[in-house]
Write a structure and sequence with these properties.
507 residues, two-stranded antiparallel ribbon, 13-stranded antiparallel sheet, 15 helices
């Protein structure tokens, strides 16, 4: 029997204007240097008493970290949030309650904040059905979403577990090419309460007319008693196509949104074999109404029960009501309010987190399992977003990282300072990654986001504490997305492949 494989080697991405300094941080350090040199130029001790403390404060603001953020980043978040509050941009009202534009009589978009620019397009899926494609005109991406089922890893033997993980890695590696039009692949999973409506409907349709009365009674009692206490997991896979990288293929397919949809559908059909090899079974590629329902149930948790009953009734013969799902025009919340640390939407409150540090020690493939443990007082969502890198860009990024690690160690040795074990391991990890890249492995950028949602505000902090405890047990370090909870909700609680920022200067 093969041994279970352990995993490690995640590298934190450092984005900055120079090294770990952002643009404002670099400006503060430069200003502090000039102010510190001013007393030498003037030859005045009195000037030194004024300039040196100012320089130290500027350096502390630039280099200091509070909860993982520098002072200039905290200032930027606070100022942006206060401007939004002053302009009432933190509030969202939809439908008949939304203020009409002075220029037109049209209602604003139904989705709030960063999601307002999205459009849900309708395209043929190539199999006689309809596919809902989320178009982001700003980023130039087209995203399709599928609901998948996965047999899991915890209860299978080691050989099959390793094979499934390797197949998933092979799927990601297949898109780490220079000409791949697929730029992002995201996995989203959420835990939801299940009232048993779908199960009761299925049982009613398959119940034999001559079934014993005692058996029917016992089954009904089990369904009524277990339904409200049950939970269900929904898993989604999102695939994003870049219009810029696929422009020639889009032009050949007819151009515009129609051509982009055709190219995306071709990519989806091509990856079916790889998904099956990884143990993922595609239940359905979501239609526009199914995409809208997924968004709607995240904003309004109580709508999940109603929609589950409606979808179950729609399966009955002779049903003449609304089709399954939600009208895309009604996907968003009726109202939402963004505060500094909490996002309130309809009848629920959500707190979103970003994974700041992945496990430093070796872990097994099931290390994320505690994060989606069913909870009676809260609903959890997790999104893992992968951005595939081509060989040329991966080579440049890893070479830059290796050079920065080596130069830092060399500078410490020349100045006689002690070298920490963390620095030695980081350089070794960078060399190992570069060697794996040269051997044909793929390189991806990845981010993890989590959200916890409650329908009772009194349970919110308890639910947050439980999530952080489970994250610590998994070896993760989380950071609450202060001042950006609306954007955090869009990335963590919705399967739209959001949340991974564009690459800036540095690594």
């Amino acid at each position: 029997m093969s041994q279970p494989v352990s995993y490690s080697g995640w590298q934190s991405e450092k984005s900055g204007f120079m090294g770990r300094l952002s643009g404002p941080g670099f400006a503060m350090v430069a200003t502090a240097s000039m102010i510190a040199l001013l007393p030498l130029h003037l030859g005045s001790w009195r000037a030194a008493l004024v300039c040196v403390p100012i320089s130290l404060v500027l350096v502390l603001l630039a280099l200091g970290r509070v909860m993982g953020l520098s002072a200039d980043e905290w200032i930027f978040l606070a100022v942006r949030h206060q401007i939004a509050v002053a302009k009432k941009q933190n509030l969202f009202l939809s439908g008949a309650f939304a203020p009409r534009s002075h220029r037109t009589s049209e209602q604003p978009m139904d989705l709030p904040g960063v999601l307002a620019r999205l459009r849900i397009l309708n395209a043929p899926d190539g199999l006689g059905g309809q596919l809902g494609i989320v178009h982001d005109p700003v980023a130039g991406t087209y995203t399709a979403i599928t609901r998948v089922t996965f047999p899991g890893l915890a209860l299978v033997d080691t050989t099959r577990q390793n094979s499934r993980v390797a197949s998933w890695a092979g799927l990601l590696r297949a898109y780490c090419t220079e000409d791949s039009p697929v730029v992002r692949i995201a996995v989203h999973q959420r835990c939801l309460p299940d009232d048993g409506a779908a199960l009761r409907s299925w049982t009613a349709r398959h119940l034999a007319p001559d079934a014993p009365a005692a058996a029917v009674t016992a089954l009904s009692e089990v369904l009524e008693g277990a339904g409200p206490a049950a939970t269900t997991r929904e898993t989604y896979l999102s695939v994003s196509l870049s219009a810029a990288r696929a422009r020639l293929a889009i032009k050949g397919a007819g151009g515009g949104q129609v051509g982009a949809a055709a190219v995306l559908v071709r990519e989806l059909h091509a990856m079916q074999g790889a998904l099956s090899g990884a143990g993922l079974r595609t239940t359905e590629w979501l239609s526009p109404r199914a995409v809208a329902a997924t968004i709607r149930t995240a904003y309004d948790p109580d709508a999940h029960m109603t929609l589950a009953a409606q979808d179950a009734a729609a399966q009955e013969p002779g049903w003449e009501g609304a089709p399954p799902g939600v009208d895309p025009a009604l996907a968003g919340p009726a109202a939402a309010d963004t505060t500094w640390g909490v996002y309130q939407h309809d009848g629920a409150w959500t707190v979103s987190y970003q994974v700041r540090t992945w496990p430093q020690a070796y872990v097994y493939a099931t290390f994320l399992q505690p994060l989606l443990r069913p909870r009676l007082n809260a609903r959890r969502s997790m999104s893992l977003v992968y951005e595939t890198l081509g060989p040329r860009r991966a080579r440049q990024d890893l070479a830059r990282e290796r050079a920065k690690r080596s130069s830092a160690r060399h500078l410490r040795s020349k100045t006689g300072r002690d070298e920490s074990e963390d620095e030695r391991r980081e350089e070794q990890r960078a060399r190992t990654q570069d060697a794996a890249r040269a051997a044909g492995q793929g390189v991806v950028r990845m981010t993890g986001l989590l959200a916890v949602t409650v329908t009772d505000i009194a349970e919110l902090e308890t639910a947050c504490a439980e999530l952080q405890a489970d994250a610590a047990a998994a070896g993760l370090v989380l950071r609450r997305m202060w001042g950006a909870q609306d954007a955090g909700f869009a990335a963590a609680a919705l399967p739209l492949a959001q949340g991974l920022p564009d690459r800036r200067m540095g690594f």
